[in-house]
Design goal:
This protein has 221 residues and is of the alpha/beta class. It is 37% helix and 16% strand. It has one domain: Nucleotidyltransferase, domain 5 (2-Layer Sandwich). The protein is globular.
Length: 221
């Protein structure tokens, strides 16, 4: 009897994995970055759920406004306390899709891009929760956190991890559509480009390795 049987995954997951067959390029000027954000029912990565996902791509170190993804998910659970933050009602007029469909759209969109987010560990954990509920492994993409990148600029000797509002104010980035997934993704994309510009002054030959965190596992990542 063959006691070992390889687990079978859906085609969309196998397609996603195929994007990682080639080694990741290191030059930020040719890397496709996807800046993303999630709005959720709360901050508990085990019990809360994703309400919306917003993504915008960066290529050639420029935001590609035409290359975006925005998804709204059907709310299986509802937290009235967080509506005042994200404004997403359980019903409302927005077209909403199932978690499974949102996940397929997200993986098809991001492919093997380097993901960027502010407080990235939370957003990645929420997306990994979607994957887990579909019986799938975790995201394979490399991930950058704009909070950690700010620390690398050496602009603040305290080493504190600042919120998106604080860094947006520091770099004079307007807070349009704050606390919407797409709005926060766009704000974070602008912040990311400003941080990369600062880091290129420190590392003239800046590579992806210079942007990444130390190899040891920290927190949720």
């Amino acid at each position: 009897m063959n006691w070992f049987q390889r687990k079978s995954y859906p085609d969309y997951w196998n397609t996603y994995l195929d994007y990682f067959s080639k080694e990741q390029v290191q030059d930020p000027k040719v890397i496709r970055f996807v800046v993303f954000d999630t709005e959720t029912t709360g901050l508990d990565i085990k019990t809360d759920r994703v309400l919306s996902i917003g993504c915008v791509a960066i290529e050639g170190l420029q935001i590609k406004v035409s290359d975006q993804l925005e998804s709204y998910l059907i709310q299986e659970q509802f937290n009235a306390d967080t509506v005042k933050i994200h404004g997403l009602l359980k019903a409302g007029k927005l077209t909403k899709i199932e978690e499974s469909e949102a996940l397929v759209q997200f993986l098809d969109y991001v492919q093997n891009a380097v993901l960027v987010a502010h407080h990235a560990a939370f957003d990645v954990a929420m997306m990994n929760g979607l994957l887990q509920r579909q019986g799938l492994p975790k995201l394979k993409n490399k991930v950058l956190d704009t909070g950690h990148l700010f620390q690398k600029t050496r602009l603040d000797p305290s080493g504190m991890h600042f919120g998106l509002d604080e860094l947006a104010e520091r770099f004079k980035i307007p807070l349009h559509d704050r606390h919407t997934a797409s709005g926060d993704a766009y704000i974070t994309a602008l912040l990311f480009l400003k941080l990369v510009a600062k880091l290129r002054l420190i590392h003239p030959n800046l590579s992806l390795r210079d942007l990444e965190r130390p190899s040891r596992r920290i927190g949720l990542l």
